[in-house]
Design brief:
166 residues, 5% strand, mainly alpha
Amino acid sequence: MKKAIFAVTLILGLAGVAWGQTPHQHAAVTVIDGSKNPELVPDSTAYRLVLLDLSFADNPSDEDKRRQAAHFRDVGLTPSEAIQFSAVLAEFRSAYNAWIARWNIAAEAADGKGVVFDPAPFLQQLEDLIQATRNTLKQNSTVDLKVAGYVQKHKANIQIHKGAAQ
């Protein structure tokens, strides 16, 4: 799970470079520290990280399944709610993996043509995916409220670094 979060962080960090930052520019780095100011962490970012952390990559191990079950207990999900949430997470992860594949194909195609890759439409697709997943969660208000509380609680564990790679 941590590899997936790292990959997204790396991708989004590299996207900032593609938007025009040259190595010779020095921008001030701003850090949003969720432990101090959780309200400054965008919900979309927090949901993305939680959804990635709680969903399975391909071929989850028994340890992955035990870890997910423990997180579901932390969320406060009943067994039937956990089944519903698992289905939402599986759909999210599948769509997320397809998004990564599209990103990679487009980036490689741009590189092959010697043009600068424009990540903007892909970043919007990611935002749309996160919003669509949140909308799916809202179909069960109890699950939605429990997951929303869990996401808000975990904003305290998020740091966002802006500036250097943007």
